[in-house]
Amino acid sequence: MTKNINIGPLVRLQSLTPRSPWHQCLRTNTNCLHELETECKRKNRSFLVGSCEMGSSVEQSILVTGGAGFIGTHTVVQLLKEGFKVSIIDNLDNSVIEAVERVRELVGPDLSKKLDFTEGDLRNKGDIEKLFSKQRFDAVIHFAGLKAVGESVVNPRRYFDNNLVGTINLYETMAKYNCKMMVFSSSATVYGQPEKIPCMEDFELKAMNPYGRTKLFLEEIAKDIQRAESEWRIVLLRYFNPVGAHESGRIGEDPKGIPNNLMPYIQQVAVGRLPELNVYGTDYPTKDGSAVRDYIHVMDLADGHIAALRKLFDDPKIGCTAYNLGTGRGTSVLEMVTAFEKASGKKIPIKLCARRPGDATEVYASTEKAEKELGWKAKYGVDEMCRDQWNWANNNPWGYQKKP
Ligand SMILES: NC(=O)c1ccc[n+]([C@@H]2O[C@H](COP(=O)([O-])OP(=O)(O)OC[C@H]3O[C@@H](n4cnc5c(N)ncnc54)[C@H](O)[C@@H]3O)[C@@H](O)[C@H]2O)c1
Ligand SMILES: O=c1ccn([C@@H]2O[C@H](COP(=O)(O)OP(=O)(O)O[C@H]3O[C@H](CO)[C@@H](O)[C@H](O)[C@H]3O)[C@@H](O)[C@H]2O)c(=O)[nH]1
User: Which residues form a coiled coil (predicted)?
Assistant: First the structure.
Protein backbone atom coordinates (compact mmCIF):
# COMPACT_ATOMS: atom_id res chain seq x y z
CA MET A 1 0.00 0.00 0.00
CA THR A 2 2.68 2.50 0.94
CA LYS A 3 4.25 2.37 -2.50
CA ASN A 4 1.53 4.73 -3.71
CA ILE A 5 2.04 7.37 -1.05
CA ASN A 6 2.11 11.00 -2.23
CA ILE A 7 -0.19 10.70 -5.21
CA GLY A 8 -3.92 10.98 -5.53
CA PRO A 9 -6.55 11.87 -2.94
CA LEU A 10 -6.18 11.79 0.81
CA VAL A 11 -7.42 8.80 2.67
CA ARG A 12 -7.96 8.59 6.36
CA LEU A 13 -8.29 5.16 7.85
CA GLN A 14 -8.04 3.32 11.06
CA SER A 15 -4.90 1.29 11.01
CA LEU A 16 -5.26 -2.04 9.32
CA THR A 17 -3.03 -3.70 11.82
CA PRO A 18 -4.15 -4.26 15.40
CA ARG A 19 -0.62 -3.53 16.58
CA SER A 20 -1.00 0.17 15.76
CA PRO A 21 -4.51 1.18 16.72
CA TRP A 22 -4.30 4.88 15.90
CA HIS A 23 -5.74 6.61 12.89
CA GLN A 24 -3.59 7.16 9.89
CA CYS A 25 -3.82 9.47 6.93
CA LEU A 26 -2.15 8.68 3.69
CA ARG A 27 -2.23 9.70 0.12
CA THR A 28 -3.01 6.99 -2.32
CA ASN A 29 -3.60 6.25 -5.95
CA THR A 30 -7.28 6.41 -6.94
CA ASN A 31 -6.97 2.92 -8.41
CA CYS A 32 -6.25 1.33 -5.09
CA LEU A 33 -9.09 3.05 -3.20
CA HIS A 34 -11.49 0.21 -3.87
CA GLU A 35 -8.95 -2.34 -2.72
CA LEU A 36 -8.33 -0.32 0.42
CA GLU A 37 -12.03 0.01 1.14
CA THR A 38 -12.59 -3.74 0.80
CA GLU A 39 -9.67 -4.46 3.08
CA CYS A 40 -10.90 -1.97 5.68
CA LYS A 41 -14.43 -3.41 5.65
CA ARG A 42 -13.06 -6.92 6.00
CA LYS A 43 -11.11 -5.87 9.10
CA ASN A 44 -13.94 -3.71 10.39
CA ARG A 45 -11.89 -0.53 10.20
CA SER A 46 -13.18 2.92 9.30
CA PHE A 47 -12.33 4.41 5.94
CA LEU A 48 -12.88 8.04 4.93
CA VAL A 49 -11.72 9.57 1.69
CA GLY A 50 -10.67 13.21 1.68
CA SER A 51 -11.55 13.64 5.34
CA CYS A 52 -8.46 15.53 6.38
CA GLU A 53 -6.28 18.36 5.26
CA MET A 54 -3.09 17.76 3.36
CA GLY A 55 -1.04 19.19 6.24
CA SER A 56 -2.35 16.62 8.66
CA SER A 57 -1.34 13.66 6.55
CA VAL A 58 0.57 11.62 9.05
CA GLU A 59 4.01 12.85 9.85
CA GLN A 60 5.25 14.00 6.52
CA SER A 61 8.76 14.82 7.43
CA ILE A 62 10.51 17.88 6.07
CA LEU A 63 14.19 18.75 6.32
CA VAL A 64 14.64 22.52 6.55
CA THR A 65 18.18 23.70 5.87
CA GLY A 66 18.93 27.14 7.28
CA GLY A 67 15.80 26.82 9.41
CA ALA A 68 17.21 28.97 12.23
CA GLY A 69 17.39 32.01 9.94
CA PHE A 70 14.91 34.76 9.19
CA ILE A 71 12.65 33.10 6.59
CA GLY A 72 13.40 29.63 7.96
CA THR A 73 12.04 30.27 11.48
CA HIS A 74 8.79 31.76 10.17
CA THR A 75 8.32 28.87 7.75
CA VAL A 76 9.04 26.26 10.43
CA VAL A 77 6.28 27.74 12.63
CA GLN A 78 3.79 27.37 9.77
CA LEU A 79 5.01 23.87 8.85
CA LEU A 80 4.53 22.64 12.42
CA LYS A 81 1.09 24.22 12.62
CA GLU A 82 0.18 22.44 9.38
CA GLY A 83 1.09 19.10 10.94
CA PHE A 84 4.49 18.45 9.38
CA LYS A 85 7.39 16.98 11.28
CA VAL A 86 10.41 19.25 10.89
CA SER A 87 14.14 18.75 11.16
CA ILE A 88 16.37 21.80 10.96
CA ILE A 89 20.02 21.76 9.97
CA ASP A 90 21.82 25.06 10.43
CA ASN A 91 25.44 25.99 11.15
CA LEU A 92 24.32 29.16 12.98
CA ASP A 93 26.58 31.23 10.76
CA ASN A 94 23.93 33.95 10.52
CA SER A 95 21.52 32.92 13.26
CA VAL A 96 21.31 31.95 16.92
CA ILE A 97 19.84 28.96 18.73
CA GLU A 98 17.55 31.33 20.68
CA ALA A 99 15.55 31.76 17.43
CA VAL A 100 14.78 28.03 17.42
CA GLU A 101 13.83 28.18 21.11
CA ARG A 102 11.38 30.97 20.28
CA VAL A 103 9.86 28.85 17.51
CA ARG A 104 9.30 26.10 20.10
CA GLU A 105 7.72 28.60 22.47
CA LEU A 106 5.41 29.90 19.70
CA VAL A 107 4.09 26.49 18.64
CA GLY A 108 3.79 25.12 22.18
CA PRO A 109 5.06 21.94 23.85
CA ASP A 110 3.08 19.42 21.75
CA LEU A 111 4.12 20.65 18.33
CA SER A 112 7.64 21.26 19.62
CA LYS A 113 8.04 17.52 19.95
CA LYS A 114 7.86 17.37 16.17
CA LEU A 115 10.81 19.71 15.74
CA ASP A 116 14.41 18.76 15.99
CA PHE A 117 17.51 20.84 15.46
CA THR A 118 20.97 19.78 14.35
CA GLU A 119 23.90 22.13 14.27
CA GLY A 120 25.61 21.18 11.05
CA ASP A 121 27.14 22.59 7.91
CA LEU A 122 26.03 21.63 4.41
CA ARG A 123 29.60 21.95 3.23
CA ASN A 124 30.34 18.83 5.31
CA LYS A 125 28.63 15.99 3.54
CA GLY A 126 28.94 13.93 6.74
CA ASP A 127 26.63 16.34 8.60
CA ILE A 128 23.87 15.82 6.02
CA GLU A 129 24.51 12.09 5.79
CA LYS A 130 24.05 11.73 9.56
CA LEU A 131 20.53 13.12 9.31
CA PHE A 132 19.43 11.09 6.29
CA SER A 133 20.87 7.88 7.67
CA LYS A 134 18.72 8.08 10.79
CA GLN A 135 15.40 9.20 9.33
CA ARG A 136 13.36 9.43 6.15
CA PHE A 137 12.50 12.85 4.71
CA ASP A 138 9.61 13.39 2.30
CA ALA A 139 10.99 16.70 1.06
CA VAL A 140 13.62 19.34 1.73
CA ILE A 141 13.13 23.10 1.99
CA HIS A 142 16.55 24.54 1.27
CA PHE A 143 17.10 27.99 2.79
CA ALA A 144 20.72 27.62 3.91
CA GLY A 145 22.96 30.06 2.14
CA LEU A 146 24.84 33.31 2.43
CA LYS A 147 22.96 36.34 1.13
CA ALA A 148 24.91 39.58 1.54
CA VAL A 149 25.45 41.06 -1.92
CA GLY A 150 28.35 43.37 -0.92
CA GLU A 151 30.22 40.62 0.90
CA SER A 152 29.83 38.36 -2.13
CA VAL A 153 31.58 40.94 -4.31
CA VAL A 154 34.51 41.15 -1.90
CA ASN A 155 34.72 37.41 -1.23
CA PRO A 156 33.11 35.48 -4.08
CA ARG A 157 34.88 32.21 -3.21
CA ARG A 158 33.13 32.11 0.17
CA TYR A 159 29.80 32.41 -1.67
CA PHE A 160 30.60 29.76 -4.27
CA ASP A 161 31.87 27.41 -1.58
CA ASN A 162 28.96 27.88 0.79
CA ASN A 163 26.03 28.21 -1.59
CA LEU A 164 27.16 25.94 -4.43
CA VAL A 165 29.14 23.23 -2.64
CA GLY A 166 26.59 23.09 0.19
CA THR A 167 23.72 22.61 -2.27
CA ILE A 168 25.54 20.02 -4.38
CA ASN A 169 26.29 18.00 -1.21
CA LEU A 170 22.63 18.21 -0.34
CA TYR A 171 21.48 16.93 -3.75
CA GLU A 172 23.99 14.07 -3.58
CA THR A 173 22.74 12.92 -0.20
CA MET A 174 19.08 13.35 -1.16
CA ALA A 175 19.67 11.21 -4.25
CA LYS A 176 21.43 8.55 -2.20
CA TYR A 177 18.46 8.28 0.16
CA ASN A 178 15.89 8.61 -2.61
CA CYS A 179 14.43 11.87 -1.32
CA LYS A 180 13.79 13.78 -4.53
CA MET A 181 11.56 16.70 -3.68
CA MET A 182 12.97 20.12 -3.00
CA VAL A 183 11.76 23.67 -2.48
CA PHE A 184 14.69 25.97 -3.22
CA SER A 185 15.14 29.58 -2.04
CA SER A 186 15.90 31.54 -5.15
CA SER A 187 15.60 35.28 -5.48
CA ALA A 188 14.29 38.10 -7.62
CA THR A 189 17.97 38.94 -8.00
CA VAL A 190 18.01 36.45 -10.93
CA TYR A 191 16.08 39.03 -12.98
CA GLY A 192 18.92 41.56 -12.62
CA GLN A 193 17.64 44.90 -13.87
CA PRO A 194 14.57 43.64 -15.74
CA GLU A 195 13.80 45.24 -19.08
CA LYS A 196 10.09 45.13 -18.34
CA ILE A 197 8.03 45.00 -15.16
CA PRO A 198 6.29 43.14 -13.66
CA CYS A 199 8.86 40.31 -13.74
CA MET A 200 7.49 37.14 -15.28
CA GLU A 201 9.00 33.76 -14.56
CA ASP A 202 9.98 33.19 -18.20
CA PHE A 203 12.06 36.38 -18.47
CA GLU A 204 15.69 36.04 -19.43
CA LEU A 205 17.80 35.66 -16.30
CA LYS A 206 20.99 37.53 -15.50
CA ALA A 207 22.92 38.00 -12.31
CA MET A 208 24.58 41.24 -11.32
CA ASN A 209 26.91 40.04 -8.55
CA PRO A 210 28.45 36.80 -7.19
CA TYR A 211 25.57 36.21 -4.76
CA GLY A 212 23.08 36.54 -7.60
CA ARG A 213 25.22 34.23 -9.71
CA THR A 214 25.02 31.51 -7.04
CA LYS A 215 21.21 31.68 -7.25
CA LEU A 216 21.30 31.64 -11.04
CA PHE A 217 23.75 28.70 -11.15
CA LEU A 218 21.70 26.81 -8.58
CA GLU A 219 18.55 27.29 -10.63
CA GLU A 220 20.42 25.87 -13.65
CA ILE A 221 21.80 22.98 -11.59
CA ALA A 222 18.30 22.15 -10.36
CA LYS A 223 16.98 22.14 -13.94
CA ASP A 224 19.80 19.86 -15.14
CA ILE A 225 19.32 17.40 -12.29
CA GLN A 226 15.59 17.19 -12.95
CA ARG A 227 16.13 16.88 -16.70
CA ALA A 228 18.47 13.95 -16.20
CA GLU A 229 16.35 12.16 -13.58
CA SER A 230 12.70 12.89 -14.19
CA GLU A 231 11.52 11.65 -10.79
CA TRP A 232 12.93 14.77 -9.13
CA ARG A 233 10.36 17.44 -8.29
CA ILE A 234 11.86 20.86 -7.60
CA VAL A 235 10.15 24.19 -6.98
CA LEU A 236 12.32 27.29 -7.32
CA LEU A 237 10.83 30.13 -5.30
CA ARG A 238 11.98 33.57 -6.37
CA TYR A 239 11.43 35.78 -3.35
CA PHE A 240 11.10 39.50 -3.83
CA ASN A 241 11.89 41.59 -0.73
CA PRO A 242 10.94 39.71 2.45
CA VAL A 243 10.19 41.98 5.44
CA GLY A 244 7.99 42.06 8.56
CA ALA A 245 7.94 39.51 11.33
CA HIS A 246 5.66 37.02 13.08
CA GLU A 247 2.67 38.85 14.58
CA SER A 248 3.66 37.73 18.08
CA GLY A 249 6.82 39.85 17.92
CA ARG A 250 8.82 36.84 19.20
CA ILE A 251 10.70 36.03 15.98
CA GLY A 252 11.99 38.35 13.29
CA GLU A 253 15.04 39.34 11.29
CA ASP A 254 18.21 39.84 13.31
CA PRO A 255 21.12 40.53 10.99
CA LYS A 256 24.63 40.37 12.40
CA GLY A 257 26.52 43.69 12.12
CA ILE A 258 25.22 46.77 10.30
CA PRO A 259 22.19 45.79 8.20
CA ASN A 260 22.50 45.89 4.40
CA ASN A 261 18.79 45.79 3.74
CA LEU A 262 16.32 48.62 4.01
CA MET A 263 13.85 47.42 6.63
CA PRO A 264 16.31 46.09 9.24
CA TYR A 265 18.17 49.38 8.84
CA ILE A 266 15.02 51.48 9.35
CA GLN A 267 14.16 49.34 12.35
CA GLN A 268 17.53 50.00 13.98
CA VAL A 269 17.14 53.73 13.41
CA ALA A 270 13.69 53.58 15.03
CA VAL A 271 15.04 51.96 18.20
CA GLY A 272 18.01 54.33 18.40
CA ARG A 273 20.77 51.87 17.43
CA LEU A 274 21.62 53.87 14.29
CA PRO A 275 21.32 57.65 13.90
CA GLU A 276 19.75 57.98 10.45
CA LEU A 277 18.82 56.12 7.29
CA ASN A 278 20.87 56.67 4.14
CA VAL A 279 18.44 56.77 1.24
CA TYR A 280 20.41 55.49 -1.74
CA GLY A 281 19.27 57.26 -4.87
CA THR A 282 16.85 60.15 -5.26
CA ASP A 283 17.09 60.61 -9.02
CA TYR A 284 15.58 57.35 -10.25
CA PRO A 285 12.84 57.70 -12.87
CA THR A 286 10.21 56.61 -10.33
CA LYS A 287 7.25 58.31 -8.61
CA ASP A 288 9.42 60.09 -6.00
CA GLY A 289 12.97 59.50 -7.29
CA SER A 290 13.76 56.62 -4.90
CA ALA A 291 14.05 52.96 -5.98
CA VAL A 292 10.99 50.71 -6.07
CA ARG A 293 10.76 47.13 -4.74
CA ASP A 294 8.11 44.50 -4.12
CA TYR A 295 8.13 44.02 -0.33
CA ILE A 296 6.48 40.86 0.90
CA HIS A 297 5.47 39.91 4.45
CA VAL A 298 7.57 37.02 5.71
CA MET A 299 4.43 35.19 6.91
CA ASP A 300 3.03 35.31 3.38
CA LEU A 301 6.34 33.94 2.20
CA ALA A 302 6.17 31.15 4.80
CA ASP A 303 2.71 30.20 3.54
CA GLY A 304 4.10 30.23 -0.01
CA HIS A 305 6.41 27.38 1.05
CA ILE A 306 3.50 25.32 2.31
CA ALA A 307 1.75 25.90 -1.03
CA ALA A 308 4.92 24.85 -2.86
CA LEU A 309 5.20 21.66 -0.79
CA ARG A 310 1.58 20.80 -1.56
CA LYS A 311 2.34 21.28 -5.22
CA LEU A 312 5.35 18.95 -4.97
CA PHE A 313 3.35 16.23 -3.27
CA ASP A 314 0.32 16.58 -5.53
CA ASP A 315 1.73 17.16 -8.98
CA PRO A 316 3.91 14.40 -10.42
CA LYS A 317 4.42 16.54 -13.52
CA ILE A 318 5.85 19.55 -11.71
CA GLY A 319 9.41 18.84 -12.92
CA CYS A 320 11.55 21.83 -12.04
CA THR A 321 9.39 24.96 -11.97
CA ALA A 322 10.04 28.54 -10.86
CA TYR A 323 7.49 30.78 -9.12
CA ASN A 324 7.70 34.40 -8.04
CA LEU A 325 6.72 35.11 -4.45
CA GLY A 326 5.86 38.79 -4.28
CA THR A 327 2.78 40.96 -3.91
CA GLY A 328 2.81 42.42 -7.42
CA ARG A 329 2.95 45.94 -5.95
CA GLY A 330 5.92 48.29 -6.07
CA THR A 331 6.76 50.57 -3.11
CA SER A 332 9.49 53.21 -3.13
CA VAL A 333 12.11 53.61 -0.40
CA LEU A 334 10.55 56.92 0.68
CA GLU A 335 7.06 55.39 0.80
CA MET A 336 8.42 52.60 2.97
CA VAL A 337 9.94 55.16 5.36
CA THR A 338 6.60 56.97 5.63
CA ALA A 339 4.70 53.71 6.22
CA PHE A 340 7.14 52.72 8.97
CA GLU A 341 6.87 56.13 10.65
CA LYS A 342 3.08 55.75 10.65
CA ALA A 343 3.22 52.24 12.12
CA SER A 344 5.80 53.06 14.80
CA GLY A 345 4.98 56.66 15.64
CA LYS A 346 8.76 57.28 15.36
CA LYS A 347 10.46 59.84 13.17
CA ILE A 348 13.08 58.25 10.91
CA PRO A 349 15.76 60.84 10.11
CA ILE A 350 17.01 60.38 6.55
CA LYS A 351 20.07 61.43 4.61
CA LEU A 352 19.69 61.64 0.84
CA CYS A 353 22.64 59.86 -0.81
CA ALA A 354 23.92 58.81 -4.23
CA ARG A 355 22.63 55.57 -5.77
CA ARG A 356 24.03 52.32 -4.37
CA PRO A 357 26.10 50.68 -7.12
CA GLY A 358 24.41 47.71 -8.75
CA ASP A 359 20.89 48.60 -7.56
CA ALA A 360 17.97 48.16 -9.93
CA THR A 361 15.52 51.03 -10.44
CA GLU A 362 12.18 49.31 -10.15
CA VAL A 363 11.41 45.64 -9.58
CA TYR A 364 8.13 43.95 -8.80
CA ALA A 365 6.62 40.57 -9.44
CA SER A 366 4.01 39.17 -11.67
CA THR A 367 2.09 36.98 -9.24
CA GLU A 368 -0.20 35.26 -11.72
CA LYS A 369 1.67 31.98 -12.02
CA ALA A 370 1.89 31.40 -8.26
CA GLU A 371 -1.78 32.31 -7.88
CA LYS A 372 -2.89 30.02 -10.65
CA GLU A 373 -0.64 27.03 -10.09
CA LEU A 374 0.13 27.14 -6.35
CA GLY A 375 -3.18 28.66 -5.27
CA TRP A 376 -1.16 31.15 -3.24
CA LYS A 377 -1.53 34.91 -3.00
CA ALA A 378 0.03 37.38 -0.56
CA LYS A 379 -2.48 38.60 2.05
CA TYR A 380 -0.57 41.42 3.70
CA GLY A 381 0.19 44.95 2.54
CA VAL A 382 2.89 47.42 3.48
CA ASP A 383 0.99 48.66 6.58
CA GLU A 384 0.90 45.18 8.12
CA MET A 385 4.55 44.59 7.17
CA CYS A 386 5.58 47.78 9.01
CA ARG A 387 3.26 47.05 11.96
CA ASP A 388 4.80 43.61 12.52
CA GLN A 389 8.36 44.77 11.86
CA TRP A 390 7.89 47.48 14.48
CA ASN A 391 6.30 45.08 16.96
CA TRP A 392 9.36 42.82 16.65
CA ALA A 393 11.79 45.77 16.89
CA ASN A 394 10.02 47.40 19.81
CA ASN A 395 9.94 44.17 21.79
CA ASN A 396 13.45 43.10 20.79
CA PRO A 397 15.50 46.24 20.12
CA TRP A 398 18.69 44.14 20.16
CA GLY A 399 17.21 41.24 18.28
CA TYR A 400 17.75 37.89 19.98
CA GLN A 401 20.67 39.25 22.01
CA LYS A 402 20.59 41.15 25.25
CA LYS A 403 21.68 44.79 25.11
CA PRO A 404 25.50 44.71 24.96
N1 LIG B 1 16.00 37.70 3.02
C2 LIG B 1 16.06 38.05 1.75
O3 LIG B 1 16.01 39.25 1.42
C4 LIG B 1 16.14 37.01 0.67
C5 LIG B 1 15.69 37.34 -0.63
C6 LIG B 1 15.78 36.38 -1.62
C7 LIG B 1 16.31 35.11 -1.33
N8 LIG B 1 16.73 34.84 -0.08
C9 LIG B 1 17.30 33.50 0.18
O10 LIG B 1 16.50 32.83 1.15
C11 LIG B 1 17.32 32.01 1.98
C12 LIG B 1 17.04 32.33 3.43
O13 LIG B 1 17.28 33.71 3.64
P14 LIG B 1 17.16 34.38 5.08
O15 LIG B 1 16.81 35.79 4.85
O16 LIG B 1 16.32 33.57 5.98
O17 LIG B 1 18.69 34.32 5.51
P18 LIG B 1 19.33 33.97 6.92
O19 LIG B 1 20.77 34.29 6.83
O20 LIG B 1 18.55 34.60 8.03
O21 LIG B 1 19.12 32.39 7.00
C22 LIG B 1 19.97 31.49 6.34
C23 LIG B 1 20.39 30.43 7.35
O24 LIG B 1 21.24 29.48 6.71
C25 LIG B 1 22.30 29.16 7.61
N26 LIG B 1 23.41 28.69 6.78
C27 LIG B 1 24.14 29.39 5.88
N28 LIG B 1 25.06 28.60 5.31
C29 LIG B 1 24.91 27.37 5.85
C30 LIG B 1 25.57 26.12 5.66
N31 LIG B 1 26.59 25.99 4.81
N32 LIG B 1 25.14 25.06 6.37
C33 LIG B 1 24.12 25.18 7.24
N34 LIG B 1 23.47 26.33 7.46
C35 LIG B 1 23.86 27.41 6.77
C36 LIG B 1 22.57 30.46 8.37
O37 LIG B 1 23.20 30.23 9.61
C38 LIG B 1 21.18 31.01 8.53
O39 LIG B 1 20.57 30.59 9.74
C40 LIG B 1 18.75 32.25 1.54
O41 LIG B 1 19.13 31.22 0.65
C42 LIG B 1 18.69 33.58 0.81
O43 LIG B 1 19.69 33.70 -0.18
C44 LIG B 1 16.64 35.74 0.93
O1 LIG C 1 20.20 51.49 4.10
C2 LIG C 1 19.60 51.34 3.04
C3 LIG C 1 19.34 50.06 2.50
C4 LIG C 1 18.68 49.97 1.30
N5 LIG C 1 18.27 51.08 0.65
C6 LIG C 1 17.56 50.97 -0.63
O7 LIG C 1 16.39 50.20 -0.45
C8 LIG C 1 16.11 49.43 -1.62
C9 LIG C 1 15.99 47.98 -1.22
O10 LIG C 1 17.27 47.52 -0.80
P11 LIG C 1 17.51 46.17 0.00
O12 LIG C 1 16.59 46.07 1.17
O13 LIG C 1 18.97 46.05 0.26
O14 LIG C 1 17.01 45.07 -1.05
P15 LIG C 1 17.51 44.71 -2.51
O16 LIG C 1 18.73 45.45 -2.88
O17 LIG C 1 16.33 44.85 -3.41
O18 LIG C 1 17.94 43.19 -2.36
C19 LIG C 1 17.22 42.27 -1.53
O20 LIG C 1 16.24 41.65 -2.29
C21 LIG C 1 16.75 40.80 -3.32
C22 LIG C 1 15.56 40.26 -4.07
O23 LIG C 1 14.82 39.44 -3.28
C24 LIG C 1 17.61 39.72 -2.70
O25 LIG C 1 18.12 38.87 -3.67
C26 LIG C 1 18.75 40.35 -1.95
O27 LIG C 1 19.49 39.32 -1.32
C28 LIG C 1 18.20 41.26 -0.91
O29 LIG C 1 19.27 41.92 -0.28
C30 LIG C 1 17.29 49.71 -2.59
O31 LIG C 1 16.90 50.68 -3.50
C32 LIG C 1 18.39 50.25 -1.69
O33 LIG C 1 19.26 51.14 -2.32
C34 LIG C 1 18.50 52.34 1.17
O35 LIG C 1 18.11 53.34 0.57
N36 LIG C 1 19.15 52.43 2.36
Answer: none
